[in-house]
Amino acid sequence: MNDVHLVHIGNQTIGKGKPILVQTMYDDSLPIDRKSAEELLIRIGKLNMMGCDIIRFSYPSKNDHAVFKYLCKSSPIPIVADIHFDHTLALDAIEAGAHKIRINPGTIGARWKVDEVVRAAKDHDIAIRIGLNSGSLPRKEASSPAKLMSDTALEYLDWFERLSFTNTVISLKGSDTDLTIEANRLFAKESSYPIHLGVTEAGSVISAVTRSTWALGTLLSEGIGNTLRISITGEIETEIQAGVELLRTLGLRKKGIRVVSCPRCGRHTFDTMGFLASVEEELLTIDKDLTVAIMGCQVNGPGEAKAADVAVAGIGNAIFLYEKGVLSKKVKTEEAKDALLETIRNAE
Q1: Which of 116, 134, 256, 294 could in theory staple to 261 by disulfide, Cβ–Cβ 3.0 to 4.6 A?
Q2: CATH superfamily of 7-249
């Protein structure tokens, strides 16, 4: 087993010693016209500014070829095609310029179909993710589902290596967090291929973030994992936010705004919840390593302001802005958002 196995995905490289990348999956079918595709590109650009490094798209039809090709050529981040069952769709997506394709060799069909996809990926110098979910494994004898997942991934890697193809990423996912953790631990002991982490069908924001943070945080803290997706039944922007925050919490990503805000209580004199909702999306697109505090009363406000690079605290009818713990200005409530963003953009 090599100590380092690097995989290139478009303009990104993953593997040991490389940054952990955040991924999401587009939450709709591909657009059918150029104008909608251009609007989607703008959204991808914003996702990238928020911290998204790779985006995956379902590729259910060859009718998507033209738009998908345009996105692959124009996107600021690598584009992945998600393929199920039909190997000709994988071939079509590769021809369209996909930077990576995701397949489960066990559901593609005959071995020769898998080999054909691998050869095409090799010819076009793109990556393949072998994606195994706990619900789509072959029926084989194994001491545990986790071992079956790991052993199956190793078997498919052997198929690929027999064709001299090694630009491969592995994902072993389940909706059960313990299964996900154990399967990835087993695989990481046997192989140095990069691993994409995730928990499938994790649910709405609260359950998805909680379960994914436990499973992915555990693995990442053990040095396992090279890309991740926090799958949420909700906005993909929230997936990106959660993934970036997880990496920042683990000390694996430094850039970006760290938001500190107090929960509402009977002391609040400033609507921190509404204010944060109005400004958070813009904060996430600012590429500065800063802590920003949003506080709602005289108890926590001034104290948190001292520890933050920039802080806004509502006290009575006034909104106070602090820089490095020093009061810099007093503004009206309706001026607070613009004043905060201006202060952040001017911060050193």
Answers
A1: 294
A2: Dihydropteroate synthase-like (3.20.20.20)
> Do 284 and 257 contact (CB within 8 A), yes or no?
yes
One of 3.30.413.10, 3.30.465.10, 3.40.190.10, 1.10.4160.10 is the CATH number of 257-346, namely 3.30.413.10
Helices (H) and strands (E) in the chain — how many of each? 12, 15
Instruction: Please tell me the distance from the alpha carbon of residue 280 to that of residue 273, in angstroms, as a whole number.
Output: 10
pTM: 0.89
Contact 343, 323 (CB under 8 A): yes
pLDDT in tens, 11-59: 999 999 999 999 999 988 888 888 899 999 999 999 999 999 999 999 9
Write the pLDDT tens digit of every residue in 275-301.
Answer: 888 888 888 888 888 889 888 776 666
d(CA 57, CA 26) in angstroms, rounded, equals 6
3-state helix, strand and coil shares in percent for the chain, rounded to the nearest 5: 45, 20, 35
Report yes or no: 195 and 224 within 8 Å, Cβ to Cβ: yes
Q: 199 and 173 in contact (C-beta within 8 Å)?
A: yes
As a whole number of angstroms, the distance between CA 253 and CA 23 comes to 14
Torsion angles phi and psi, residue 4, rounded to 5: -130, 125
Question: What phi-psi label fits residue 324: left (phi over 0), alpha (psi between -120 and 50 degrees) or beta?
Answer: left
160, two tokens: 């690929």
Determine which helix (DSSP H) or strand (DSSP E) holds 267, and give its type and residue range.
none
Q: Where in the chain is the domain with CATH 3.20.20.20?
A: 7-249
- The answer to whether 27 touches 233, Cβ cutoff 8 Å, is no
Residue 284 tokens, joined: 């996430």
What CA–CA distance (Å, rounded) separates 295 from 281? 18
Angle in degrees, CA 218, 145, 189, rounded to 5: 50
Q: Determine the residue type at 70.
A: Y
Token digits of residue 209: 């973030």
